[in-house]
Amino acid sequence: MRSPIAWRAWTRAPTIMSSSPSTCAPLALSPREFALLEALLARPGAILSRAQLEDKLYGWSDPVESNVVEVHIHALRKKLGADFIRNVRGVGWMVAKAPASA
């Protein structure tokens, strides 16, 4: 069983298809939004390329639409806030590392 992923005030439990700030209600995420968010939160501070994110969203036999990553990133930003996922132009997307606890 996978352990929960925590990032700042957010926690993602491995068996629940939703994520939420600890002070708010759970968010409804599509399976692909959830997979994308999981990939980004699993490696905070790391830039993930379009190809890496597409690998998380699709299997070998699934056709990949040209702008699918952007569509799901846009949907996640609407639900999580515009600054939650950062774009590194020409490279990929990332979430910032959580600040170290003092």
Pick out its properties:
alpha+beta, Arc Repressor Mutant, subunit A, three-stranded antiparallel β-sheet, two-stranded antiparallel ribbon, 14% strand
Describe the model.
With 102 residues, the protein is of the alpha+beta class. It has a single domain, classed as Arc Repressor Mutant, subunit A, CATH 1.10.10.10. The protein has helices at 31-42, 50-57, 68-80; strands at residues 5-7, 10-12, 20-21, 86-88, 92-94. β2 and β3 form a beta hairpin. α1 (31-42) packs across α3. The protein is globular, with a radius of gyration of 13 Å. It starts with a strand and ends in an 8-residue tail after the last strand. The model is unreliable at 14-18 (pLDDT under 50).
The low-confidence parts are 14-18
How would you sum up the major sheet?
Answer: 3 strands, antiparallel
Domain module count: 1
Major sheet: arrangement of strands: 1-2-3
Tell me the span between the first and last alpha carbons. Answer: 30 Å
How many E-type strands? Answer: 5
CATH class bucket: Mainly Alpha
The gyration radius over C-alpha positions equals 13 Å
Instruction: Give helix % range.
Output: 25-40%
Estimate the global geometry from the Cα principal axes.
globular
CATH superfamily: Winged helix-like DNA-binding domain superfamily/Winged helix DNA-binding domain
The number of distinct helices, counting runs of at least 4 residues, comes to 3
- The CATH architecture would be Orthogonal Bundle
The structural class is: alpha+beta
CATH fold type: Arc Repressor Mutant, subunit A
Strand content: 5-15%
- Rounded mean pLDDT is 76
Order of helix and strand elements from N to C terminus: EEEHHHEE
